[in-house]
Description:
Blueprint: E1 7-10, E2 13-16, E3 19-22, E4 36-41, E5 49-54, E6 59-65, E7 68-73, E8 78-83, E9 88-92, E10 97-101, E11 108-113, E12 122-123, H1 126-136
Antiparallel strand pairs: 1-9, 2-3, 4-11, 5-10, 5-12, 6-9, 6-11, 7-8, 7-10
Amino acid sequence: MSVEDSRLVILPKFTDGRGDLSFVESNIHIPFEIRRVYYLYNVPEGEGRGHHGHRKLQQLILPVSGSFNVLLNDGKNTKEYELNRPNIGLYVPPGMWRELTNFTTDAVCIVLASEYYDENDYFRDYDEFINYTKERL
Ligand code: TYD
Protein backbone atom coordinates (compact mmCIF):
# COMPACT_ATOMS: atom_id res chain seq x y z
CA MET A 1 0.00 0.00 0.00
CA SER A 2 1.19 3.52 -0.74
CA VAL A 3 -0.07 7.03 0.03
CA GLU A 4 -1.54 6.91 -3.48
CA ASP A 5 -4.07 4.38 -2.14
CA SER A 6 -5.40 7.02 0.27
CA ARG A 7 -8.26 9.14 -1.02
CA LEU A 8 -10.90 11.66 -0.11
CA VAL A 9 -14.35 10.09 0.20
CA ILE A 10 -17.29 12.35 -0.59
CA LEU A 11 -20.23 11.16 1.48
CA PRO A 12 -23.89 11.68 0.64
CA LYS A 13 -25.36 14.90 1.98
CA PHE A 14 -29.06 15.62 2.40
CA THR A 15 -29.82 19.27 2.95
CA ASP A 16 -33.18 20.81 3.73
CA GLY A 17 -34.55 23.56 5.96
CA ARG A 18 -33.66 21.47 9.04
CA GLY A 19 -29.97 21.28 8.22
CA ASP A 20 -27.61 18.72 6.70
CA LEU A 21 -27.42 14.96 7.08
CA SER A 22 -24.57 12.71 5.96
CA PHE A 23 -23.93 9.02 6.52
CA VAL A 24 -21.37 6.26 5.99
CA GLU A 25 -22.09 2.61 5.25
CA SER A 26 -19.58 -0.24 5.60
CA ASN A 27 -18.40 -1.73 2.31
CA ILE A 28 -20.25 0.94 0.34
CA HIS A 29 -18.56 4.27 0.99
CA ILE A 30 -15.51 2.65 2.57
CA PRO A 31 -13.88 -0.69 1.66
CA PHE A 32 -14.13 -2.23 5.14
CA GLU A 33 -16.47 -3.25 7.94
CA ILE A 34 -16.57 -0.70 10.80
CA ARG A 35 -15.50 -2.39 14.06
CA ARG A 36 -14.69 0.69 16.12
CA VAL A 37 -15.41 4.40 16.28
CA TYR A 38 -13.30 6.88 18.25
CA TYR A 39 -13.13 10.64 18.27
CA LEU A 40 -10.72 13.43 19.11
CA TYR A 41 -11.91 16.76 20.48
CA ASN A 42 -10.69 19.64 22.68
CA VAL A 43 -7.29 19.41 21.02
CA PRO A 44 -5.32 22.41 22.34
CA GLU A 45 -3.96 24.88 19.81
CA GLY A 46 -0.58 23.78 18.48
CA GLU A 47 -1.02 20.17 19.62
CA GLY A 48 -0.88 17.21 17.26
CA ARG A 49 -2.27 13.67 17.39
CA GLY A 50 -1.25 10.42 15.79
CA HIS A 51 2.51 10.30 15.15
CA HIS A 52 2.27 6.56 14.85
CA GLY A 53 1.93 3.91 12.18
CA HIS A 54 -0.33 0.92 11.71
CA ARG A 55 0.15 -2.47 10.13
CA LYS A 56 -3.38 -3.58 9.29
CA LEU A 57 -5.73 -0.82 10.33
CA GLN A 58 -7.87 0.98 7.75
CA GLN A 59 -9.69 4.14 8.71
CA LEU A 60 -12.01 6.85 7.53
CA ILE A 61 -11.08 10.13 9.22
CA LEU A 62 -13.93 12.64 9.29
CA PRO A 63 -13.84 16.31 10.31
CA VAL A 64 -17.39 16.49 11.66
CA SER A 65 -16.62 19.96 13.01
CA GLY A 66 -13.80 22.44 12.36
CA SER A 67 -10.71 21.49 10.41
CA PHE A 68 -7.30 19.85 10.71
CA ASN A 69 -4.53 18.43 8.52
CA VAL A 70 -3.56 14.80 8.07
CA LEU A 71 -0.12 13.84 6.84
CA LEU A 72 0.25 10.26 5.58
CA ASN A 73 3.61 8.58 5.09
CA ASP A 74 4.07 5.12 3.54
CA GLY A 75 7.80 5.01 4.35
CA LYS A 76 8.72 6.38 0.93
CA ASN A 77 6.28 9.14 0.05
CA THR A 78 4.08 11.52 2.00
CA LYS A 79 0.76 13.14 1.20
CA GLU A 80 -0.96 15.85 3.21
CA TYR A 81 -4.68 16.53 3.29
CA GLU A 82 -6.66 19.37 4.82
CA LEU A 83 -10.01 18.11 6.09
CA ASN A 84 -12.63 20.80 6.61
CA ARG A 85 -15.98 19.54 5.35
CA PRO A 86 -18.13 17.22 7.47
CA ASN A 87 -19.14 15.16 4.43
CA ILE A 88 -15.62 14.65 3.06
CA GLY A 89 -13.50 12.08 4.86
CA LEU A 90 -10.05 10.65 4.28
CA TYR A 91 -9.68 6.93 3.61
CA VAL A 92 -6.41 5.71 5.14
CA PRO A 93 -5.18 2.34 3.77
CA PRO A 94 -3.15 -0.14 5.86
CA GLY A 95 0.53 0.45 6.55
CA MET A 96 0.53 4.24 6.95
CA TRP A 97 2.26 6.53 9.42
CA ARG A 98 -0.07 9.45 10.22
CA GLU A 99 0.24 12.87 11.84
CA LEU A 100 -2.76 15.09 12.59
CA THR A 101 -2.01 18.79 13.06
CA ASN A 102 -3.46 22.28 12.77
CA PHE A 103 -6.67 21.56 14.67
CA THR A 104 -9.06 24.48 14.92
CA THR A 105 -10.39 24.91 18.48
CA ASP A 106 -13.84 23.66 17.42
CA ALA A 107 -12.44 20.58 15.63
CA VAL A 108 -14.01 17.19 16.22
CA CYS A 109 -12.35 14.30 14.40
CA ILE A 110 -14.32 11.07 14.18
CA VAL A 111 -12.44 7.98 13.09
CA LEU A 112 -14.19 4.89 11.72
CA ALA A 113 -11.82 1.96 12.08
CA SER A 114 -11.65 -1.49 10.50
CA GLU A 115 -10.28 -3.20 13.65
CA TYR A 116 -10.81 -3.27 17.39
CA TYR A 117 -8.18 -1.43 19.41
CA ASP A 118 -4.97 -3.48 19.31
CA GLU A 119 -1.71 -2.01 20.55
CA ASN A 120 0.16 -4.72 18.59
CA ASP A 121 -1.01 -3.13 15.35
CA TYR A 122 0.79 0.13 16.21
CA PHE A 123 4.26 1.40 15.38
CA ARG A 124 4.94 3.94 18.10
CA ASP A 125 8.55 4.29 16.93
CA TYR A 126 9.21 5.98 13.58
CA ASP A 127 12.45 4.09 12.81
CA GLU A 128 10.72 0.78 13.50
CA PHE A 129 7.99 1.78 11.04
CA ILE A 130 10.55 2.72 8.39
CA ASN A 131 12.33 -0.64 8.81
CA TYR A 132 8.99 -2.42 8.42
CA THR A 133 8.20 -0.54 5.19
CA LYS A 134 11.63 -1.48 3.80
CA GLU A 135 11.06 -5.16 4.61
CA ARG A 136 7.68 -4.90 2.89
CA LEU A 137 9.21 -3.87 -0.47
P1 TYD B 1 -3.30 7.51 21.06
O1 TYD B 1 -2.96 6.37 20.16
O2 TYD B 1 -2.18 8.24 21.69
O3 TYD B 1 -4.22 8.57 20.27
P2 TYD B 1 -3.94 9.23 18.84
O4 TYD B 1 -4.41 8.23 17.81
O5 TYD B 1 -4.75 10.46 18.77
O6 TYD B 1 -2.49 9.50 18.74
O7 TYD B 1 -4.32 7.00 22.18
C1 TYD B 1 -4.48 7.66 23.41
C2 TYD B 1 -4.89 6.63 24.44
O8 TYD B 1 -6.18 6.11 24.16
C3 TYD B 1 -3.93 5.46 24.50
O9 TYD B 1 -3.65 5.19 25.86
C4 TYD B 1 -4.71 4.31 23.91
C5 TYD B 1 -6.16 4.69 24.12
N1 TYD B 1 -7.05 4.22 23.07
C6 TYD B 1 -7.94 3.21 23.33
O10 TYD B 1 -7.99 2.65 24.45
N2 TYD B 1 -8.81 2.81 22.36
C7 TYD B 1 -8.80 3.37 21.13
O11 TYD B 1 -9.61 2.99 20.25
C8 TYD B 1 -7.84 4.40 20.84
C9 TYD B 1 -7.77 5.05 19.49
C10 TYD B 1 -6.99 4.80 21.84
